[in-house]
Specification:
Length: about 675
């Protein structure tokens, strides 16, 4: 495609503004002339060749074009009769340059906003810009439409007409009849009319459709009053802002394409989602916030980068009041639908607009996301993530998982509430649930090899950090091997409890005989474990059973400080009372002396206390230790009973997901 710009006119009506250069060199903003803006847009669209008709001050114009340093190749065609003929003759002079090519034709005094130009370039077939919202201009072009095509263009048509601007994209088959007719007009000496007079004779062969630009800027500058209006409108257009939110840590071609589109609408402000917001709705970011922010700021044409603290855009939109929000159209359905609705609602309060572009479902981009997930699942990256989450969030939540599928539930379950997203941060590999899934009692009967097998099953399909329930840890001599194995597998933390002998589940309390280890022995076990580990990431948490075994708060506290002294990276205090006051008392007393060691809680019995309250009282990890097991098995029991009672499969249907859903639950790689 070649661009044809008509710049032979004298521009008399501009007065002194055209006394030293042609009209197209009139400044329309602090950085642009009419021509520099047109040429920049042409170059950005990838057009290489520009044919420009000149006449008056042709050398000034040629030098000016060269000074712009744009990647364009110019053919300047002088209309020797520029002061006696209309531009129909100028076009005629260019005919040898414009055969057999698609043409972008514009008058040299036309100013249009980026999106008008983009729409022209993207138009399928030939088009001319018109405006259905503009009042019919007295002296400027109007177009008459017939059957969806332009049938006449001229200043004299007022019936069934729309305002029209001389910006055309013409496919070569549609351009040829018009050019031929222009040449014929000139051969016949009709050089004082508009080129459109020739078009009107052959319009049915030209198939030009109207492209309605509505109230967007697309206007000619004929006199100083027009200039003032365009100057003001351009300033308004160019000070518009566009907001986009990014959670990605990889910038690929799909992102670049949508960023470019957004930049056409105005100055681009990028909201970079905080690490916490990303971790709570998608996956842990591979690249930390500050680096992602710098990455975005380094992209060409990005006006500003701000932090977006939640998935909800609301706070940033209310503060920045962007004219546009740009997003892929993928959020019309699914999880982000309410986020989109909130964006629309907020934009409506001040007249902003949402612009959506088709979402790129390119396979290679999906592949990149898979690769990122795979990376996050690798032992060395996964292991340290619990510490990172503790630093980032202060309070981390974990839910039990005892198999691949429960691991996936822990990994993927997401809730959107008041513009915020919630996910579990980590998984708890409970001894109770792992044993229960195998139909065995929780008495350290399921051996470590089998427990590791469960870890491996979960590791294979998830990326979140794992906290391993190490029961008593066994003999110190054995525990060191357990530590190394777990660390090598990518587990983030092992929790061992200070019991000896036949361990029973803590929730039995004193109803069964259970013995607590001595402080000395247990400290020795912790120290041996700490010495055995190879990386600084791995954490050993000491679990205190004093409250379970009714030994009192003082014993619990004495042990807590001793275990920290022995090297424990965290303390778990357990209770089986429904009243949380002994836990709160422990937290208060412990925090009075130790502000930093993370405290882990398992609120199975005191389950009505909220995470916020735990956080306020100084806890750092809340483990939902058995809820998937306790909710899953009753549902299975019900289905089994229904089949027995109904003597057919269908009797259980109401308790079952569809076969389709179960097949689709786990997509194949
Ligand atoms: C487990 O989940 O296996 C635990 C926590 O150790 S509790 O069952 O409360 O003892
Ligand atoms: Mg346990």
């Amino acid at each position: 495609m070649k661009a044809l710009i008509l710049n032979s006119g004298l521009g008399h009506r501009m007065g002194v503004l055209t006394s030293e250069h042609p009209k197209c060199m009139t400044e329309i903003s602090a950085t642009d002339t009419i021509l520099s803006r047109q040429l920049r847009l042409i170059a950005e669209a990838g057009i290489k060749e520009v044919v420009m008709t000149t006449g008056y001050y042709n050398q000034v114009l040629e030098r000016y074009c060269a000074s712009l340093n744009l990647p364009l190749q110019y053919s300047f065609v002088v209309n020797p009769l520029y002061d006696k003929t209309n531009y129909i003759y100028s076009i005629c002079c260019t005919k040898d340059y414009l055969q057999d090519d698609d043409i972008l034709l514009m008058h040299g005094d036309l100013v249009f906003e980026n999106t008008v130009f983009d729409d022209v370039m993207a138009f399928q077939g030939s088009c001319m810009t018109v405006s259905s919202t503009l009042a019919l201009p007295e002296k400027d072009f109007k177009a008459v439409l017939a059957d969806g095509y332009i049938s006449k263009v001229g200043i004299e048509y007022f019936d069934d007409a729309v305002a029209a601007q001389p910006l055309y994209k013409l496919c070569k088959v549609d351009w040829k009849p018009w050019l031929d007719r222009i040449v014929k007009f000139c051969d016949d000496g009709q050089t004082g009319v508009y080129a459109e007079n020739a078009l009107n004779q052959v319009a049915s062969a030209c198939h030009i459709r109207p492209l309605d630009v509505g109230d967007r800027l697309c206007a000619e500058i004929d006199n100083p009053q027009d200039l003032e209006v365009v100057y003001g409108r351009l300033h308004e257009v160019e000070s518009r802002t566009v907001y986009m939110s990014f959670s990605t840590d990889i910038i690929h071609g799909g992102h670049v394409a949508i960023i470019h589109k957004a930049q056409r609408l105005g100055r681009l402000i990028i909201g970079v989602l905080s690490d916490e917001a990303i971790a709570s709705y998608r996956r842990f970011p591979i690249i930390p916030f500050e680096e992602r922010k710098a990455l975005m700021a380094s992209l060409g044409g990005v006006y500003k980068v701000v932090e977006q603290k939640t998935l909800s855009y609301k706070d940033n939109l209310l503060e920045l009041k962007p004219d546009y929000v740009v997003h892929g159209d993928d959020w019309r359905e699914g999880f982000q639908k309410p986020v989109r609705q909130e964006v629309l609602d907020v934009l409506a309060t001040y007249g902003g607009r949402l612009v959506e572009f088709p979402y790129s479902r390119d396979k290679k981009y999906q592949e990149l996301d898979k690769l990122s997930r795979a990376q996050l699942a690798m032992p060395d990256l996964r292991r340290g993530r619990l510490r990172k989450l503790l630093n980032m969030k202060g309070l981390v939540t974990a839910i039990e998982a005892h198999s691949g599928i429960t691991g996936l539930i822990a990994e993927k379950t997401t809730v959107l509430q008041d513009g915020k997203t919630y996910q579990f941060d980590a998984m708890w590999l409970s001894s109770l649930c792992d044993s229960t899934a195998k139909g065995k009692p929780d008495i350290e009967l399921v051996d470590m090899t089998s427990r590791f097998r469960t870890v491996d099953d979960i590791m294979e399909v998830t990326t979140k950090p794992i906290i391993f329930d190490g029961d008593t840890g066994g003999l110190a001599e054995h525990f060191v091997y357990t530590v190394r194995s777990l660390e090598r597998m990518g587990v983030s933390m092992v929790i061992i409890e200070d019991k000896v002998g036949l361990k029973k589940n803590s929730l039995f309390g004193t109803e069964v005989p259970q013995s607590q280890d001595s402080i000395e022995n247990f400290c020795a076990k912790i120290s041996a474990g700490k010495k055995a580990q190879k990386t600084p990431d791995f954490m050993i948490c000491a679990r205190i059973e004093s409250l379970i075994l009714e030994r009192g708060l003082d014993d619990a506290l004495q042990r807590a400080f001793a275990y920290v002294q022995a090297g424990a990276d965290a303390i778990m205090i357990h209770s089986r009372k429904a009243d949380p006051s002994e836990i709160f008392a422990f937290l208060e007393a412990f925090r009075a002396k130790d502000k930093t060691t993370p405290v882990v809680l398992v609120p199975t019995s005191y389950g009505s206390v909220t995470e916020d309250e735990f956080k306020r009282r100084g806890a750092n990890i809340v483990i939902y230790a058995n809820q998937l097991t306790r909710s899953g098995f009753p549902a299975m029991q019900k289905a089994a009973e229904a089949i027995l009672a109904g003597h057919c499969a269908q009797a259980a249907d109401e308790f079952c997901m569809s076969i389709k859903d179960i097949i689709n639950l786990i997509p194949e790689e």
